[in-house]
């Protein structure tokens, strides 16, 4: 899970948190020793005396004394003297190396941005994350990334079980309507939420309002039988709004909640979108949930925009456990301020995980 985005994030963190390679340090030492030998040799040829210093003296002291000595000698008319001075200057000012890399360069950020886009993060979000790292100290990069990801993913807590219980207490029933495009895992998500609510002792009624797709009614009926949940269904080709209406009456009789399925529409299908508006207008659901397939990639943002016409209240992302890219989740939160309630994980009814920003960021970075 989150393989691509984890690789992108951990790659840039490793680059700036990784200590300098010991081999590079040893190479620098060898270069300094070699340069010292050249200076000693030139000093011998110009003065006729060996270059001797106390072993207790550090390299910097040696080089300073050598430089001072040469500067007191005759004018640098000979090429050897000039070369010696140049070589000494190079040694006096050795290449600086820190234990950690520091400022994050533009080149690093451009590469990082590209890696995020490859992980299904939208370009705008990738740019936003990269801009927050600009001119920052690379030694703090993990903390900076953690804060930025949390800022993107954090949301107000919404407890759907409490919401449903309050609605039932207030009006005798509650209705939750689900919609999304074909193949998003909508029907399975309804079954999983039904399982969760039943565990909370809340009476549940399924509404098989997808009268368009072949086998849709049978699929939801199979879940209802497995979970021992009531289901209201009509014939294929029937009016979906009427199915939801009848389910709502049944839920009121048992003091429960309706979980209503709808046709697995594409957001580009005008007729199906009009049907959805009719269901909303007639039944006035208490909560509308857009179900999105996390594997969809960049198209997920277009779906959010199109379904925004029906004013959904919350989202559920499915197939997150097999999502190797993972970046779409960041894009979703940047596109809409509506809460993500759950993440679809695994194959069992219980595999509906509550959205937790802290937990997700930890999985991405650690």
Features:
Rossmann fold, single chain, alpha/beta, 15 helices, eight-stranded mixed β-sheet
Structure, explained:
The protein is an alpha/beta fold and 366 residues long. The chain folds into three domains: 3-18 and 101-153, Up-down Bundle (Four Helix Bundle (Hemerythrin (Met), subunit A)); 22-92, no CATH class; 160-365, Rossmann fold. The protein has 15 helices and eight strands. An eight-stranded mixed β-sheet has the order 3-2-4-1-5-6-7-8, sandwiched between helices. A hairpin with a 7-residue loop joins strand 7 (340-344) and strand 8. Helix 2 (22-47) runs antiparallel to helix 4. The chain is elongated, with a radius of gyration of 34 Å. 38% of the residues are buried. Residues 20-25, 48-59, 74-85 and 87-101 have low confidence and may be disordered.
Q: Could you give a quick summary of the protein structure above?
A:
The protein is of the alpha/beta class.
Please describe the topology of this protein.
Elements: H1 3-17, H2 22-47, H3 59-72, H4 79-92, H5 106-118, H6 123-133, H7 141-153, H8 160-171, E1 174-179, H9 186-199, E2 204-208, H10 216-227, E3 230-233, H11 240-254, E4 257-261, H12 270-283, E5 287-293, H13 299-307, E6 314-318, H14 328-335, E7 340-344, E8 352-354, H15 357-365
Helix pairs in contact: 1-5, 2-4, 3-4, 5-6, 7-15, 9-10, 11-12, 13-14
Task: Please work out how many helical segments DSSP would assign.
Answer: 15
N-to-C CA distance: 13 Å
**Which class of secondary structure composition applies to the elements?**
alpha/beta
The secondary-structure element order is: HHHHHHHHEHEHEHEHEHEHEEH
Which regions are unreliable across 5 or more consecutive residues at pLDDT < 50?
20-25, 48-59, 74-85, 87-101
Q: Which architecture name of the largest domain does CATH use?
A: 3-Layer(aba) Sandwich
Instruction: Classify the fold: give the CATH topology of the largest domain.
Output: Rossmann fold
Oligomer: single chain
Radius of gyration, Cα only, in angstroms?
34 Å
Largest sheet: 8 strands, mixed
CATH class of the largest domain: Alpha Beta
**Full CATH superfamily name of the largest domain:** P-loop containing nucleotide triphosphate hydrolases
What is the number of strand segments? 8
